[in-house]
Write a structure and sequence with these properties.
Length: 746
């Protein structure tokens, strides 16, 4: 059984173990010959810095798994995600002015992304290697020396977080390390690729949050919730809503997304307290799904807590080279992003007195010590400002021609009126060495909305320049693919469905998780909206007055012929435009129920035939098989997850003359939440699609044994189409299978 997603690479770990002593020798040499002189040059106080002991220990880093991306990316690159774990016994000591500092052990783990691009037709076949962490890696350091001052809890945490921030500033997205492997390879576009898009998060409201405030240790009060939202290293905090377990925020946040797949939206809710804020639940949303769906408007259940739902509206904004999208937004939202590639500066003055409007300054300096200090080359950094946001570059020490090599992004509200303000400052004296203002309207004159040139510095010497590349891109909410299975907002626009009453029965349509998902219309006792937890009413339960459920998964997607065959039941009352007709209960009762979970699990045949019993397809009075699906299922004990590999389907039955675009949808019943649903890509115009896509459900083996796999093959058809959506389904009772051994069957 082959699972192509995350692969164990024991052979690579064996190579690392064998090569580690040699790597340690190289690093010892690097510390002494490269790092030590650099540290000494940083400051006068560090001139006596000496490494007294450098030993990288016996324990080497371990790679727990590698995930390779080849299909979702450019054909000229290979992307690898390495799950790195390092619990090291390294020991490094150094002396600084009679003080002894040291490290005697490091723990580091995180996911390192490695991108090999561009692929070449001649040796070395790869132009460059790019490395970065998707999120901040977890880091713990055992300090030594200085009477273990750094082991004091407060200082220890502070020093670890400072080093984590140091790593993040260089190695966590959007920062990258790019190493060219071929001579004369231009790596600027590899180090600073244009972001993939922007995610706009509307934090609307929450409900049924857990109570965290205690009075006198017993009486529970209402909490004061706020939200922290994160993508990569960028974090925003919402306002705090006082004394409310159903808070309404109505706030909007925007994040630049650099890598998809890879980056996720993290939301944590906290109760604000005078001493320590209490955790109230969290949420992790894959941005790949949002990018594909364009707009998602959902109530999401909070994890790591006992109750609570969070209402978010998520919009994916593509970056387009189109000036028509740059009109100013009346709500104050961003309409574009500006990407600044800060390269270098030339001929900076040694101090701000040296030149004033091109002439030598007249200010006299009496202090000789200060004069010597000014004769040094400047240590410069850059402040970049657009609107009310200012970002700071790194500092280049003692150079009048500094090279920064950094990228910055800014949200732009009005490209026609806003400007980029540049100020170069000297770290030693905090004085301005030059300024420049670039109106963004200049970018609009260029068809590609790009400027790559030297800019003359004002309030500096006459031959002082700064070299930058500016790229402006409009933000565009694209219309979703009408043939794509839509989640979120399209479903939520449907109003309440009034179903015809018959024989005293009053029916209502409800979400599969009525207890957890707040209905859209809370004041209606008998009618609820079509569920918005899935695509366009994909999964509906029907209930009559006795409460007995009638299992059916294609309620809203019946053929028009169904209505013609049953004219006596009468049409349902008027539906909103775009909604498929919903049959009344007697129609549902005439449809045969799918085979039971137990009967499917005990099939003597090794072939899962797609069930046609709930699709009401007959041929000469007999039930027709709808084709077969090949599945590989096993439980991965190390990852604590159920792994389902969808290989492909064969001999599917077309639902229309125009052909079908099949995809596979998977639930691990009884969980039917939108966030838990898995689905493959859509294969166009084929009855024998090949997927080879892997999905994981992170549950304990004990829990998985109690669950049922619900797998449906569906037709991706236009939202307003009357074609049948479901092509067939199968259910597998996992309690009857040997999941550790696994099975692969048609």
């Amino acid at each position: 059984v082959h699972f192509p997603d995350v692969e164990r690479v024991e052979w690579l770990n064996k190579v690392l173990v064998q090569a580690w002593p040699y790597f340690g020798t190289i690093m010892e040499k690097t510390f002494k010959e490269v790092l030590e002189p650099k540290i000494r040059a940083k400051s006068v106080h560090l001139k006596t810095c000496t490494f007294t002991k450098i030993h990288f220990g016996e324990k080497c880093p371990r790679i727990n798994g590698i995930k390779a991306y080849t299909k979702e990316i450019d054909r000229r690159q290979v992307t690898l995600d390495l799950q790195i774990c390092y619990i090291g016994d390294c020991e490094i000591h150094m002396d600084i002015s009679k003080f002894n500092l040291g490290v005697k052990g490091v723990q580091l783990y995180g996911t390192l992304r490695v991108i090999l691009e561009p692929l070449l037709t001649d040796a070395p076949f790869v132009g460059a290697v790019t490395l970065f962490f998707m999120q901040k890696p977890h880091l713990e350091i055992n300090w030594a020396g200085m009477s273990n001052l750094l082991d004091v809890p407060g200082i220890n945490v502070m020093s670890d977080s400072l080093i984590q921030d140091f790593i993040a500033a260089r190695l966590v997205l959007p920062n990258r390390i790019t190493v060219p492997l071929k001579k004369n390879m231009n790596i600027a576009h590899l180090r600073f690729p244009v972001p993939q898009g922007v995610i706009r998060v509307h934090l609307l409201e929450a409900e049924n949050l857990v109570q965290k405030d205690n009075f006198l240790g017993a009486i529970r009060g209402k909490s004061d919730p706020y939200a922290l939202l994160r993508v990569g290293t960028v974090q925003y905090r919402s306002k705090t809503v006082s004394r409310d377990l159903n808070p309404i925020w109505n706030e909007t946040f925007e994040f630049v997304v650099h890598e998809v797949p890879g980056q996720d939206l993290e939301v944590d809710l906290y109760d604000e307290d005078p001493d320590k804020d209490d955790f109230m639940g969290s949420l992790l949303i894959s941005l790949v799904d949002v990018m594909n769906d364009r707009t998602v408007d959902e109530w999401f259940p909070l994890s790591k807590t006992t109750s609570g739902h969070l209402h978010l509206k998520l919009e994916w904004l593509s970056l387009v080279n189109d000036q028509e999208n740059l009109h100013e937004d009346k709500k104050g939202l961003s309409t574009a992003i500006l990407i600044v590639y800060l390269e270098s500066a030339f001929n900076l003055p040694k101090n701000h007195f040296e030149y004033s409007n091109g002439e030598c300054g007249t200010k006299k300096i009496k202090n000789n010590k200060y004069l010597k200090k000014m004769e040094r080359e400047p240590s410069s950094f850059v402040l970049l400002t657009v609107g009310n946001k200012t970002q700071k570059s790194k500092t280049c020490n003692f150079s009048k021609d500094p090279t920064w090599g950094q990228a910055f992004t800014f949200f732009v509200h009005s490209a026609h009126s806003q400007s980029l303000h540049i100020e170069i400052k000297d770290k030693e004296r905090d004085s301005a060495l030059g300024t420049s203002v670039v109106c963004l309207s200049h970018l609009l004159k260029d068809p590609s909305m790009t400027l790559d040139q030297r800019f003359q510095l004002d309030h500096s010497s006459s031959d002082s320049f700064i070299k930058m590349k500016l790229v402006l891109r409009a933000l565009n909410v694209e219309e979703p693919d009408p043939q794509r299975v839509k989640t979120g907002v399209n479903a939520s626009k449907l109003g309440p469905v009034h179903v015809t009453e018959k024989a005293g029965n009053q029916q209502k349509f409800s979400s599969p998780q009525v207890s957890k998902v707040p209905p859209m219309s809370k004041d209606s006792a008998t009618l609820e909206s079509l569920p918005k937890k899935d695509s366009g009413g994909e999964d509906l339960d029907t209930k009559d007055s006795s409460g007995a459920p009638v299992p059916c998964e294609t309620v809203s997607n019946l053929d028009e012929a169904e209505g013609k065959q049953n004219p006596e039941h009468g049409p349902p009352s008027a539906l909103p435009s775009g909604a498929a007709a919903v049959p009344t209960l007697p129609v549902l009762q005439e449809m045969r129920v799918a085979p039971s979970v137990t009967s499917l699990g005990s099939l003597p045949s090794s072939c899962f035939e797609l069930s046609s019993s709930n699709l009401d397809i007959t041929h000469n009075g007999t039930e027709m098989p709808l084709g077969e699906i090949q599945l590989t299922v096993r439980y991965a004990s190390i990852r604590q997850s159920l792994v389902v590999l969808v290989n492909g389907c064969r001999n599917l039955v077309p639902s229309s003359n125009r052909g079908v675009d099949p995809y596979v949808r998977i639930y691990l019943l009884p969980d039917r939440r939108w966030t838990s649903r898995k689905k493959t890509s859509v294969k166009k115009k084929t009855l024998n699609p090949q997927y080879d896509e892997k999905f994981e459900f992170f549950e304990s083996l004990e829990n998985v044994k109690k669950r049922t796999l619900d797998i449906a093959v569906k037709n991706s058809r236009p939202f307003i189409s009357q074609e049948r959506k479901e092509l067939g389904k199968v259910r597998i009772d996992l309690s009857r299978e040997d999941l550790i051994k696994g099975f692969a069957q048609w």
